Automatic annotation (TrEMBL):
One of its GO terms (cellular component) is outer membrane-bounded periplasmic space. The keyword DNA-binding does not apply. The gene is rbsB_1. It is found in: Cell envelope. This is D-ribose-binding periplasmic protein. SUPFAM superfamilies: Periplasmic binding protein-like I (SSF53822). InterPro entries: Bact_Solute-Bind_Prot2, Peripla_BP_I, SBP_2_dom. It holds the Pfam family Peripla_BP_4. Residues 1-21 form the signal peptide. Belongs to the bacterial solute-binding protein 2 family. GO terms for molecular function: carbohydrate binding. It comes from Stieleria varia. The lineage of its organism: Bacteria, Pseudomonadati, Planctomycetota, Planctomycetia, Pirellulales. Residues 43-303 form the Periplasmic binding protein domain.
């Protein structure tokens, strides 16, 4: 396990991170180096797109936590401009390693493609904690690599949303699914939860396509689904950005009053849409705490280099108009 290194905080280095092509920097939280001050670990938090409210909220929660515990660790946050830019996220891991972080907490854009870069980080003595989207357990086992996952049960969360929707439908009703990235574990698990809930309730899944987590893609795909299959009674979206895209699609084809839509993440726009009756339900992963859970896990591992950490399941709760009252 590598030891903490004393570092001077150089403003030009911070500017270089911000200017790197293909990524966006939320903030750098760090105190000026003082030779007399206790040595602190530096944690790098690597997100998906900080343009996505869910991940921006995660980053804000992490920054607030560091500010409240500034005597315990320093934090640097980076995110993508486009959460599908997997190669850029791989580069961010490499840059964090080069900058001398002691730990990396990462919400990977892909469940397999990030593993080689993270393996090299661990080889360099860096603690790695996986949040939000689980890295492939099969590939980790093949690589004999232990990286703890700190996050919710996405399948269970999606199933609870689907089951709530099913209570508003009749057996045999047609539904459609807007999937996330098919290379992401959380995308696959949410689809599996939706599938299970619909099948158990006797619904007919008419169409299921990936909108790649994006609102505009979801709008286009949902519009096509509804035009081609007017019998669709509900759309299950694997995140709230896609659910908002489905809301726009429903409006464009005149289905705002009768189409039921559910999502996942509980971003502010979706919560308001639930209050307005445009979305039926979503799942709350408590974005403001999710990165913090990962940081706390990393700090435990840094405090005891000989320790190991099992996966940590974090809360996921059903959100409806009733729970928002």
């Amino acid at each position: 396990m590598k030891r903490y290194k004393k570092r001077m905080v150089i403003p030009l280095l911070v500017m270089a991170f911000v200017m790197l092509a293909g990524c966006s920097s939320k903030t750098t939280s760090s105190s000026q180096a003082d030779p007399s001050s206790p040595e602190k670990p530096k944690i790098g938090l690597i997100m998906k797109s900080l343009a996505n409210e869910f991940f921006s909220t995660m980053a804000d929660g992490a920054v607030a936590h560091q500010a409240a515990h500034s005597d315990q660790y320093d934090l640097h946050v980076e995110g993508l401009k486009d959460e599908r830019d997997i190669s850029r996220q791989v580069a961010l891991v490499q840059e964090m390693v080069a900058s001398g972080v002691d730990a990396i907490v990462i919400a990977p854009a892909d469940s397999k493609a990030l593993i080689p870069a993270l393996r090299r980080a661990k080889k360099d003595g860096i603690v790695v904690v996986n949040i939000d989207n689980r890295l492939s357990p099969e590939m980790l086992e093949e690589e004999s690599l232990q990286i703890p996952f700190v996050g919710p049960d996405n399948k269970a969360g999606a199933k609870s949303v689907g089951a709530y929707l099913a209570n508003k439908l009749q057996p045999g009703d047609g539904v459609a699914i807007l999937e996330g990235l098919q290379t992401s574990d959380n995308g696959r698990m949410r689809k599996a939860g939706f599938d299970e809930a619909m099948n158990e309730a006797g619904m007919k899944i008419i169409d299921s396509q990936s909108a790649q987590w994006e609102m505009s893609n979801a709008n286009t795909i949902a519009s096509s689904m509804l035009s081609e299959h007017p019998e669709i009674k509900a759309i299950l979206a694997a995140n709230d950005s896609m659910a908002m895209g489905a809301v726009a699609a429903a409006k464009s084809v005149g289905r705002s009053d009768d189409l039921l839509i559910v999502g996942f993440d509980n971003i502010d726009a979706a919560a308001q849409a639930i209050r307005d009756g445009k979305i039926l339900a979503t799942a709350d992963q408590h974005a403001d705490k999710l990165a913090v859970f990962g940081i706390e896990a990393a700090l435990k591992l840094l405090a005891d280099p000989n320790s190991t950490l099992s996966d940590v399941e974090t809360p996921v709760d059903l959100v409806t108009a009733e729970t928002l009252q």
